[in-house]
């Protein structure tokens, strides 16, 4: 369990926030159920009070099929039990999350039909939500080039004072977060689990960074473990939070495509990086471009869409390769290649190729990964 | 009446001298074998009896007790039958006293009294020679093999009757063919049999992959080729057998002894080529590392001792079987613990493996595997196993205008020269190849050339190397230097070594 990140001096939750967060943390809560509770209870406080007076079973058993009835009756009993709410509130007092309630001031998403009724957030940068926001999303099966692009875009947005929103997944998501954090920017990581769950586990250090220098956000209660269906549902929050959604690399069927579709439904601008038709990790972005998404050739294109400018455009400080190094870089044809292929195409001796590759690596023109040389 | 005959049995891949004692006394006719015989030894009594009778001798209708000493060692196989038969003849006064002093006897009997070959003759005779036996009688088919031991007189036996006559001095000992033909049915086609046909010149292009193969052969490094199907990784790996350095006489004797003991056809010749074993990926853990039910048998890694073990489609092997390789890879021997004894099989083999980058096999280009599938595939090869490969090379199909490279003979000459250089360097150390230099001795034995210090430091910081990874790269760099006949490791050698160890799959 990672520790709560309550900033010192923050006010305790007001009764409405406390009631809303308690409702959101009830076991087996879903967006639909939460919405029904709030509507029928007349707001969070009313709904929490009415739970024990039959509201729980009314909401739960309303839409349930015959088969689910028994489970729902049991669940309703749990919801009605005052000790459940008490336990949740002890936890909330300990973790002290930010609570955003739809319709109240400070709620970061404009009026969308399926926006979450309650958002829970933890982190040291509540101001991340006051800035303009751009979502940077993409596939988990990213190429080294795609990771580079995401990292670069994250940094450019951060320098322009734009908050980077993403999903903390492996691949593009993580690279975008890292790029922005490295450049000192604010990020929002929207997760599909409880805020106390780290998934994927290998991202524990990244989660801590985001919690420290950004915001971790979720619509589900504490302790909720990853579930397959929850990720596409989460993606609508990413789309809703952002003004512009940039897809760096995406496969044909993947979460990033879902985020882009939701963004179009919400009337957000969708932009995508073009890629080689041989790169399956670019098939999704190329399809988006075919359908009319905005083209990102340079990270500044995204800023242009926002009407901003890069305050400190990073110049390419790499020394242009010369001689053998140039020949080897050209032999890549912009695609990943093995050392053997570089030697054959450049007609250089293996040791000349070695020297050239090492020089290119040092000057960051080339990256070696999975046994291949990737031009950057 | 008592007779004692010396013989030997196999324990693992080593011989164990055994004394066969036969006691014939008055009493009801019976025949009993004591002294931890296994089923094959116990059932030999019918063969011994039939062979004795067919050879025209009398079978004593009395109480016969056969004891196999030492009593605590399990005796296995049929190689003790000839010794039992001679013991029965001796105890029955069909042999003059004293003719078997200082003589050991090996052989299986046919019902007609013929003497049949036994597996592991070389190991058995070797053990007997060490135990001070001056003369061995072996089946005529094994005589050439027994003679490889050198410091023991070898007598060949064709039939029990003829052997008795020779022992009595009535007949001359039969001569044997120093190059016995291998029986047709023994001739199992094996990888490496076509060594004379395959050649490195068949491989087009792939200069780095060829480099890796040459370095592997020269320094004894484990090598992993990773790439899409049909790009020639298997073709390349198979050709390792054609460029491995020659074996010293002691090594050849050791390898021949192991193969003979494991029941592989040896044909009375020293194996002059390093073994190249290529088990199929359905091989069980026991088949790979040794063991199995009943008598513990040497596995493929022991048969690959002093040679190479080739695992094609590494990812398809059972993960448990692969992980069982880790300890022998480090210790260069495998210990099979059994009640009541544990055996140590030598396993100083070099691992050469091929693998696909992902389940669909195509790697980065047009790969349709999901990240989860790839992750699962990668996890089949545990990180500790991958770490043991000094050389990890990505192989893709040759380019259209690539031409054939050097032939095996040219490469083998360079490898042999580099091998000899290492042998001279490590004359005072317990290893003979760069790959096995102890981590603690690397800094002293594998010094960097004067210009390579900076490159070494840069390499470690840039690639974020752990101590172990850095050591592995340094050993490979030393082999590259040996192939170049260079006294010190240069920056170029370090760079090449680091490029030959990529983070695959």
Low-confidence segments of chain B: 183-189
Q: CATH superfamily assignment of the largest domain in chain B? A: P-loop containing nucleotide triphosphate hydrolases
CATH architecture of the largest domain in chain A: 3-Layer(aba) Sandwich
Strand content of chain A: 5-15%
Structural class of chain A: alpha/beta
Q: Main sheet of chain B: which strands, in order across? A: 11-12-15-10-16
Number of strands of chain A: 11
Please report the two chains with the greatest interface, counting residues with C-beta closer than 8 angstroms to the partner's C-beta.
A-B, 33 and 37 residues
Total DSSP helices of chain A: 16
Global shape of chain B: elongated
Please give the order of strands in the largest beta sheet of chain A: 1-2-6-5-4-3-7-8-9
Q: What's the architecture of the largest domain in chain B, going by CATH?
A: 3-Layer(aba) Sandwich
Strand content of chain B: 15-25%
**Overall pLDDT of chain B, averaged?**
86
Write down the CATH class of the largest domain in chain B.
Answer: Alpha Beta
Residue stretches of chain A low in confidence (pLDDT < 50, at least 5 long) are: 1-7
Number of domains of chain A: 3
Tell me about the largest β-sheet of chain A: 9 strands, mixed
Question: Could you please describe the fold and organization of this structure?
Answer:
The complex is a heterodimer of chains A (376) and B (505). Chain A has 376 residues and is an alpha/beta fold. Chain A has three domains: 15-96; 122-306, Rossmann fold (3-Layer(aba) Sandwich); 323-375, Arc Repressor Mutant, subunit A, CATH 1.10.10. Helix content of chain A is 44%, strand content 12%. Chain A has helices at 15-24, 31-41, 44-50, 55-62, 69-80, 82-95, 144-159, 172-182, 204-213, 230-241, 255-265, 283-290, 300-306, 323-331, 339-346, 350-362, and strands spanning 98-101, 118-123, 133-137, 163-166, 187-190, 215-218, 244-247, 269-272, 294-295, 366-369, 372-375. Residues 1-7 of chain A have low confidence and may be disordered. A five-stranded parallel β-sheet of chain B has the order 11-12-15-10-16. A four-stranded mixed β-sheet of chain B has the order 1-2-4-3. Chain B is an alpha/beta fold. Chain B has helices at residues 39-42, 44-54, 81-91, 121-130, 143-147, 160-168, 207-219, 233-238, 249-261, 285-289, 300-303, 319-324, 326-331, 371-380, 383-387, 408-425, 442-445, 452-462, 467-483, 491-499, and strands at residues 2-11, 14-25, 30-34, 63-69, 103-105, 108-109, 115-116, 135-139, 153-157, 223-226, 276-277, 308-311, 333-337, 342-346, 350-355, 391-394. Chain B contains 20 helices and 16 strands. Chain B has two domains: 2-168, Ribosomal Protein S5, domain 2, CATH 3.30.230; 193-499, Rossmann fold, CATH 3.40.50.
């Amino acid at each position: 369990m990672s520790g709560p990140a309550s900033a010192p001096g923050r006010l305790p939750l007001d009764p409405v926030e406390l009631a809303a967060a308690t409702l959101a943390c009830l076991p087996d809560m879903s967006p639909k159920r939460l919405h029904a509770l709030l509507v029928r209870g007349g707001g969070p406080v009313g709904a929490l009070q009415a739970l024990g007076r039959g509201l729980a079973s009314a909401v739960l058993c309303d839409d349930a099929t015959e088969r689910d009835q028994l489970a729902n009756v049991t669940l309703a009993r749990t919801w009605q039990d005052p000790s459940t709410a008490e336990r949740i509130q002890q936890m909330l007092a300990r973790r002290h999350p930010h609570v955003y309630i739809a319709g109240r001031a400070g709620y970061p998403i404009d009026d969308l039909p399926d926006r979450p009724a309650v958002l829970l957030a933890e982190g040291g940068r509540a101001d991340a939500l006051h800035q303009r926001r751009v979502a940077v999303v993409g596939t988990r099966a990213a190429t080294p080039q795609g990771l580079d692009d995401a990292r670069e875009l994250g940094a450019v947005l951060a320098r322009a004072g734009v908050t980077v929103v993403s999903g903390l997944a492996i691949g593009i998501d993580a690279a975008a977060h890292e790029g922005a954090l490295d450049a000192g920017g604010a990020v929002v990581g929207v997760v599909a689990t409880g805020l106390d769950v780290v998934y994927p586990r290998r991202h524990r250090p990244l989660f801590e960074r985001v919690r420290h220098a950004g915001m971790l956000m979720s619509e589900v209660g504490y302790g909720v473990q990853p579930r397959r269906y929850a990720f596409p549902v989460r993606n609508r929050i990413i789309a809703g939070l952002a003004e512009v959604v940039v897809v760096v690399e995406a496969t044909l069927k993947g979460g990033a495509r879902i985020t882009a579709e939701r963004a179009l439904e919400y009337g957000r601008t969708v932009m995508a990086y073009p890629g080689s038709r041989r790169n399956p990790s670019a098939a999704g972005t190329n399809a988006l471009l075919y359908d009319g998404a905005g083209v990102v050739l340079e990270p500044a294109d995204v800023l242009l869409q926002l009407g901003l400018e890069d305050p400190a455009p990073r110049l390419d400080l790499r020394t242009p390769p010369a001689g053998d190094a140039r020949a080897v870089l050209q032999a890549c044809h912009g695609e990943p290649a093995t050392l053997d292929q570089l030697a054959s195409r450049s007609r250089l001796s293996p040791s000349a190729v070695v020297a050239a590759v090492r020089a290119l690596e040092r000057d960051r023109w080339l990256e070696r990964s999975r046994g291949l040389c990737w031009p950057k | 009446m008592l007779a004692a005959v010396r013989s030997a049995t196999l324990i693992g891949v080593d011989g164990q001298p055994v004394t066969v004692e036969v006691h014939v006394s008055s009493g009801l006719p019976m025949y009993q074998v004591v002294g931890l015989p296994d089923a094959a030894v116990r059932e030999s009594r019918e063969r011994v009896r039939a062979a004795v009778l067919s050879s025209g001798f009398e079978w004593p209708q009395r109480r016969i007790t056969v004891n196999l000493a030492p009593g605590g060692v399990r005796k296995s196989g049929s190689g003790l039958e000839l010794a039992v038969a001679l013991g029965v003849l001796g105890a029955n006064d069909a042999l003059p006293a004293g003719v078997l002093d200082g003589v050991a006897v090996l052989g299986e009997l046919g019902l007609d009294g013929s003497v049949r070959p036994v597996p592991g003759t070389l190991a058995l005779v070797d053990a007997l020679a060490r135990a001070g036996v001056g003369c061995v009688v072996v089946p005529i088919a094994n005589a050439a093999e027994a003679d490889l031991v050198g410091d023991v007189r070898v007598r060949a036996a064709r039939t029990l009757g003829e052997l008795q006559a020779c022992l009595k001095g009535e007949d001359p000992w039969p001569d044997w063919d120093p190059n016995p033909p291998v029986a047709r049915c023994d001739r199992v086609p094996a990888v490496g049999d076509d060594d004379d046909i395959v050649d490195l010149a068949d491989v087009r292009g792939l200069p780095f992959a060829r480099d890796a193969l040459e370095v592997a052969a020269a320094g004894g490094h484990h090598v992993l080729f990773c790439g899409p199907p049909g790009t020639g990784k298997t073709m390349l790996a198979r050709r390792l057998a054609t460029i491995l350095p020659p074996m010293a006489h002691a090594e050849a004797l050791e390898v021949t002894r192991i193969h003979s003991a494991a029941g592989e056809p040896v044909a009375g010749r020293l194996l002059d080529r390093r073994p190249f074993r290529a088990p199929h990926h359905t091989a069980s853990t026991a088949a790979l590392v040794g063991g199995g039910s009943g008598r513990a048998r040497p596995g493929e890694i022991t048969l690959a001792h002093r040679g190479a073990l080739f695992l094609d489609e590494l990812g398809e092997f059972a993960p448990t079987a692969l992980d069982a390789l880790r300890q022998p890879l480090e210790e260069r021997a495998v210990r099979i613990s059994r009640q009541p004894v544990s055996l140590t099989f030598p396993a100083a083999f070099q691992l050469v493996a091929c693998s696909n980058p992902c389940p669909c096999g195509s790697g980065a280009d047009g790969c349709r595997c999901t990240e989860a599938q790839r992750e699962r595939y990668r996890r089949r090869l545990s990180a500790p196993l991958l770490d043991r490969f000094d050389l990890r090379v990505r192989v893709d199909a040759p380019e259209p205008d690539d031409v054939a490279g050097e032939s095996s003979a040219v490469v083998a000459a360079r490898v042999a020269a580099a091998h000899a250089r290492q042998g001279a360097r490590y004359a005072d150390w317990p290893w003979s190849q760069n790959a096995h230099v102890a981590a603690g001795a690397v800094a002293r034995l594998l010094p960097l050339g004067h210009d390579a210090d900076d490159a070494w430091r840069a390499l470690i910081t840039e690639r974020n190397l752990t101590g172990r990874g850095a050591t592995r790269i340094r050993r490979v760099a030393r082999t590259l230097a040996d192939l170049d006949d260079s006294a010190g490791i240069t920056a170029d050698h370090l760079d090449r070594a680091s490029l030959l160890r990529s983070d695959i799959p």
